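User: I would dearly like some help making sense of a protein record. This is the protein in question:
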Amino acid sequence: MQGIETDTDNAESRVTIDADGTSARHRGVQRAADAAAAVSRALSSAGYEPHHLSVTVSESGELVLIARIGDQQRVAHVQAPSGRSAILARLAIGLTLGVLLGFLGLPRLELPATTAPAPAPTVAPPTIISVRDLSTANPEVPTPESQAQPTSVPTSVGTLFDQPLTSPIPGWTNEPAGPAWFAPDGYHLLAREPGRFVATSVPLPRSVQDVTLTATFHKAGGPPGGGYGLIFRDQTAATERDGRNQAGQFLVAEVGDRGDIGVWQRDDTRWVDIVPWKHADVVHTDRTPNTLAVTTHGSSVLFQVNGATVATLNYDRLPNGGNAGIFVGGDLNEVTLERLQIANTD
């Protein structure tokens, strides 16, 4: 018979082996001895000083744990491990300790384990006042009356941009072989380079703050899955938002050609989800035109598609003012901007 005894004063283990003990069994017993020492330390650190703790393996193949805490003694039996792996041996010791503590009515203890690193602190999400669920089977079709802006939405008090997009406009990116160009049917944007979006500015005399941007787009080419939308609160100079620049600090409200809407912040060279892609039946799919409207007033943002409000939120992680622009994403996605209007709001 093999035996293990643990001296709880110094948590050392002593192992004895009969003459017929094999090296494999010796290794299993040594692991049990190490576990017994760990049990002793765990009990001591919890304030339950064991006077005696021993583990033995009987001839019938049982692992026997004997512990004395104060004047009490409890004995528990589990089936001895076969020596196939160290994991099974440690599991047997753990189960035995759980049984012992259950007998004594003590709080559950755990043997020391590797501590996982604490998760990095995360920034609290922005306040989403409302993201309407427009994915019902029979959405309400907006009527001329329902398309009117709610009374809480600021009204237009001055037009900053409203002109045809069928011929070149000074300051706009116009490269027929590049990311954006003017054509008789409107302003075209094409994401020619895989993994890169197209973002162009709308040059205005100054940055804008409380405005309504209204634009009508339609998909002109490319595989399914692309998106397009409006840029606002852009902190990059209009001259640098040339269709190729991928960095910056700005917000973009988009629709997808499969019927989704979303709002994101560009934070240098990464995207921050504000309203991740969400299906909305009010969005026209494929190449049917969609009219997008974004109204900003202070930190509040109202996003409408085809006259229906799809998201209302407060977002204060960027300055309220900035430049405006046009956005297209999705490899080889080509989009035509048919009409654009920018107006101040009171």
Observations:
- The chain has two domains: 2-104, 128-136+145-345.
